[in-house]
């Protein structure tokens, strides 16, 4: 396969994502997942206990205009309106209104807070305290200050609080809803009281009502909060229709105290019921008051007319009308009653027309007078439409501005209804005017007949006519007064309670423990997963031999495991270890890499790497060891002149070495050192020279390699990192094979690009990579190198063939860290 094909294969394999491999990488972090999930669940448990619990209660009511079945719209003055109802929208506005909630808050004294110190905060104990506060609203109370109530006996308690350091203390009067400041000379107040006592101080004016036994030593706190603030906080009631068809509403509130929610919801419905009843009979009450005034005046007038009629009869000795006079009287009375009714009706129509022209907002009390029964069904229908549409517009005005399209459309509809109503009024006025004209003509006719009667009979007829008309008005007003009173007494409520608010042991709707635990579990998974993804994206290290194969052209010779010995003599110190076995595998594999495969010829092996710290020296020492232990005469030469290391592993001084030979101070035999390892000699680097590159390029170096090849079967050269200096590249010409060391989780991916390019360009040959410090517990891959190819044994199946290498504990790891630092 040519180089171009190899490059293409590398690119294709690099572009593919191994899902299975990635899953193994993620699963390798199971400990991290476990820790984060446990921490997240602990945090969720803490938050479930720390967060203020909130509850939700609701009540269901029916709002439907109810009429007393004993009365019809024609006889019951309270229900002569009829028509469609806007009760639902009106009730919604009332329940959220400031005035309504002011009544509820004032009735419940909700501005008094009952508190007790809890684990994390002051807990609301309204409804659960063994006492209630009887407040004197006309006097001032210490505003917004925690006042301690500690029980000292079965019926005694101690009141205590701290004054402001400034000496100025705000106090509130709930009757006037005003706040002022009062000076104080003391820093604190503390006094014991009996439940029968009334607390009267400039700052406190109330008494306690005991409703349950006191637990001696138990402490509560009371606080007098802002009236307006309390009202505002309780206006957040949620109102929703239960169904689209029925006129039922669900009132719902949320808060930290279920008893407070229960009491407030039930009380707000009771207040609404009383308000609606008052509003419903308000028309009848005003009617009754108006009729009472007219009734009293008419009764006095009738009494006076009765007296005047009697006196006239006695004075003129005339008690009955003649048959002709009786006929004239009967016709006149009938015409007068009809005329009065038409005149009143016309007056109403005129007032109604003027009212419609003057105003833009309308209500039924102004459009329908208390004593008038509207007979024209068309006008009644139009008035109903006008009032309903006007009320609907006023409700919308509380939520949107007048330039909103809905308001503009309603204004147009109201204008059309008003114009139709004015046209019908004008038409009816013309009809009534013609009827009045005919009535006046008839009355003139009977007036001329009246003049033909005797003088005394004319007077009697006049008195009787006035009396009869007054008596008819009296009876009419008496009937209306009865209807108004009956309507008030027999009022039927429009508000029906379907389901009261009640504490049935409902759990909190915030926080939701199960939801929080689920979120914690998700976050416990997401956070480490995000960490892994970010780490993968930012990671630029080599982790597996497969990565090297997929991204570089130079082949992988083998894999060397993590050295757990105290020095680099892993093969000699622990010959049965898996690391020693991996070096034996490398010894076998490298035979195919040498240029000269003749077993009797000397072979030179050069080891290099990208940067310092990749284990190049450790590999060179152990490769030399395995060759020596196999019976081959081997020499290890330390040519990393800038940073020599070999001497330390063999416990030798670095005073004399190859540098001394290269500068002609010592002979080759004088710089050789025989080691404790059979068949292995070493040449140390010696003192660090100022010009290492020049020393390696002189003729002495070439002579040295020639001499070593003559004397030894294997010459192992430890060179400087090729990524830092060029010395190693200059030495490649003496090699039969080159090992390029890569360290797992240490070497960066781009570091081998230079040597790989040289290999592609055939500037370098007989070179292979060795992956050092490989751990099958790595989070990357899944135990790569378990086979013969990489010489890392058979994993768990190698038990009995290698020495057991127990994992280090935490203490051992810490000790090794300090040893490495030393």
Automatic annotation (TrEMBL):
According to UniProt, the reaction catalysed is:
L-tyrosyl-[protein] + ATP = O-phospho-L-tyrosyl-[protein] + ADP + H(+)
One GO MF term attached to the UniProt entry:
identical protein binding
- Which residues span the membrane? 28-47, 515-534
Residues in domain Tyrosine-protein kinase G-rich? 456-536
Give start and end of each AAA domain: 612-756
Q: Which domain of life is it from?
A: Bacteria
Any idea which UniProt keywords this protein has? ATP-binding, Kinase, Membrane, Nucleotide-binding, Transferase, Transmembrane, Transmembrane helix, Tyrosine-protein kinase
CDD domains to which the protein is assigned, alphabetical: BY-kinase
**This protein's GO CC annotations:** plasma membrane
Q: What is its EC number?
A: 2.7.10.2
Its family remark reads: Belongs to the etk/wzc family. Belongs to the CpsD/CapB family.
Q: Which NCBIfam families match?
A: eps_fam
Which protein, by its recorded name, is this?
Answer: non-specific protein-tyrosine kinase
The organism is Polaribacter aestuariivivens
């Amino acid at each position: 396969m040519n180089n171009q094909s190899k490059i293409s294969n590398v690119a294709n394999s690099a572009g593919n994502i191994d899902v299975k491999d990635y899953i193994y990488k993620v699963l390798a972090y199971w400990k991290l997942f476990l820790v984060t999930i446990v921490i997240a669940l602990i945090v969720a448990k803490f938050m479930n206990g720390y967060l203020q619990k909130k509850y939700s209660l609701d009540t269901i009511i029916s709002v439907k205009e109810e009429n007393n079945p004993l009365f019809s719209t024609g006889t019951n003055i309270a229900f002569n309106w009829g028509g469609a109802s806007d009760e639902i929208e009106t009730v919604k506005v009332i329940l959220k209104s400031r005035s309504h909630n002011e009544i509820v808050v004032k009735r419940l004294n909700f501005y008094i807070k009952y508190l007790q110190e809890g684990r994390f905060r002051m807990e609301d104990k309204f409804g659960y305290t063994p006492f209630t506060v009887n407040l004197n609203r006309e006097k001032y109370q210490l505003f917004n200050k925690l006042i301690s109530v500690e029980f000292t006996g079965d019926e005694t308690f101690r009141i205590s609080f701290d004054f402001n350091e400034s000496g100025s203390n705000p106090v509130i009067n709930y009757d006037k809803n005003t706040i002022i400041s009062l000076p104080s000379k003391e820093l604190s107040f503390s006094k014991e009281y009996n439940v029968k006592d009334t607390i009267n101080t400039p700052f406190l004016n109330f008494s306690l009502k005991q409703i349950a036994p006191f637990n001696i030593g138990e402490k509560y706190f009371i606080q007098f909060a802002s009236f307006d603030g309390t009202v505002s906080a309780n206006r957040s009631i949620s109102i929703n229709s239960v169904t689209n068809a029925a006129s039922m509403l669900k009132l719902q509130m949320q808060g930290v105290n279920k008893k407070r929610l229960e009491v407030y919801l039930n009380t707000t419905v009771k207040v609404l019921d009383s308000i609606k009843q008052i509003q419903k009979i308000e028309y009848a009450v005003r009617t009754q008051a108006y009729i009472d005034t007219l009734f009293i005046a008419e009764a006095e007038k009738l009494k006076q007319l009765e007296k005047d009629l009697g006196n006239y009869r006695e004075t003129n000795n005339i008690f009955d009308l003649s048959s002709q006079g009786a006929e004239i009287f009967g016709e006149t009375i009938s015409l007068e009653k009809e005329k009065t009714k038409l005149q009143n009706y016309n007056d109403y129509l005129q007032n109604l027309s003027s009212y419609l022209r003057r105003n833009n907002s309308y209500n039924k009390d102004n459009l329908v007078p208390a004593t008038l029964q509207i007979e024209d069904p068309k006008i009644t229908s139009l008035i109903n439409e006008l009032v309903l549409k006007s009320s609907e517009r006023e409700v919308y005005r509380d939520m949107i501005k007048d330039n909103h399209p809905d308001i503009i459309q309603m204004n147009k509809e109201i204008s059309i209804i008003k114009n139709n109503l004015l046209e019908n009024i004008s038409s009816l006025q013309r009809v009534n005017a013609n009827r009045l004209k005919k009535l006046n003509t008839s009355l003139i006719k009977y007036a001329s007949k009246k003049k033909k009667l005797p003088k005394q009979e004319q007077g009697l007829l006049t008195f009787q006519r006035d009396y009869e008309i007054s008596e008819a008005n009296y009876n009419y007003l008496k009937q209306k007064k009865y209807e108004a009173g009956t309507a008030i007494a027999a009022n039927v409520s429009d508000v029906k309670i379907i389901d009261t608010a009640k504490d049935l042991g409902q759990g909190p709707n915030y926080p939701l423990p199960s939801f929080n635990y689920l979120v914690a579990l998700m976050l416990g998974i997401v956070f480490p997963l995000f960490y892994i993804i970010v780490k993968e994206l930012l990671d630029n290290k080599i982790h597996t031999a497969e990565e090297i194969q997929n991204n570089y052209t130079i082949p992988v010779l083998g894999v060397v495991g993590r050295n757990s010995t105290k020095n680099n003599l892993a093969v000699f110190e622990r010959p049965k270890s898996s690391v020693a076995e991996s070096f034996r595998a490398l010894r076998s594999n490298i035979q195919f890499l040498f240029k000269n495969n003749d077993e009797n010829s000397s072979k030179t092996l050069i080891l290099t790497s990208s940067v310092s710290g990749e284990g190049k020296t450790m590999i060179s020492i152990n490769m030399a060891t395995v060759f020596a232990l196999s019976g081959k005469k081997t020499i290890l030469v330390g040519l990393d002149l800038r940073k020599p290391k070999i001497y330390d592993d063999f416990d030798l001084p670095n005073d004399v070495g190859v540098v001394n030979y290269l500068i002609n101070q010592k002979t080759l035999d004088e710089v050789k050192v025989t080691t404790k390892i059979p068949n292995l000699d070493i040449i140390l680097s010696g003192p660090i020279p100022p010009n290492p590159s020049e020393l390696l390029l002189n003729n002495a170096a070439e002579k040295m390699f020639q001499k070593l090849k003559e004397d030894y079967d294997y010459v192992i050269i430890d060179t400087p990192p090729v990524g830092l200096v060029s010395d190693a590249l200059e030495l490649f010409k003496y090699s039969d094979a080159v090992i390029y060391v890569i360290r797992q989780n240490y070497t960066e991916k781009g570091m081998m690009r230079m040597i790989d390019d040289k290999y592609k360009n055939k500037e370098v040959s007989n070179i292979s990579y060795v992956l050092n410090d490989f751990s099958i517990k790595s989070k990357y891959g899944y135990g790569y190198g378990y086979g013969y190819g990489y010489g890392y044994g058979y994993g768990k199946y190698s038990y009995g063939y290698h020495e057991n290498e127990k994992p280090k504990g935490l203490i051992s790891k810490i000790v090794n860290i300090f040893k490495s630092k030393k």
